[in-house]
Write a structure and sequence with these properties.
Oligomer: single chain
Largest sheet: 5 strands, antiparallel
Strand order of the largest sheet: 1-8-7-4-5
Helix content: 10-25%
Distance between the termini: 46 Å
Radius of gyration: 19 Å
Amino acid sequence: MVKRISAVLMFFLTLSGGKSYANEQNGPIDFEVRIIDQKPLHPGSPRSPIIYPVVCQEDYEIEIEAPHAVYVLNIVSGTTIVYSVVVPENVSLVELPTSLSGSYELQFVQDNLCFYGYITLQ
C-alpha cells in the first residue's frame, strides 16, 4: 500500500512540474526587510502595511514589477557597496554591470526601509 501511495505521489509531482524558485537564478527574489532609521517619517500618521517589491533576476537583468516606488538599488559585498543606482518609478528593468561576478546582497532602499535578498551573478 505504501509503494502504491508513493508511486501516485511521484506521478503527480512529475505532472505538476515541481518548480521551486528558492534557489533558481532566474526566479523571483525573496526579500526580508530591516529598518535603517527608527525615526518615523511622518509623525502622527497611521502606519500602513509594508509593501515588498516584486523582483526577478535573469542573468544581469533585474526586473521590478510595476507600479513601484522610487528605490536606491545597492549591490553589496560584505559591508561594501560595489554598485548603486536610483531606480525611478517608471523604470522596471535594470542592467547590472557584467564586471560583477559572485554572490551579493541585493538591496532596495526606500525611505527608512531596506529590502534585501541575495543574488548570484555569473
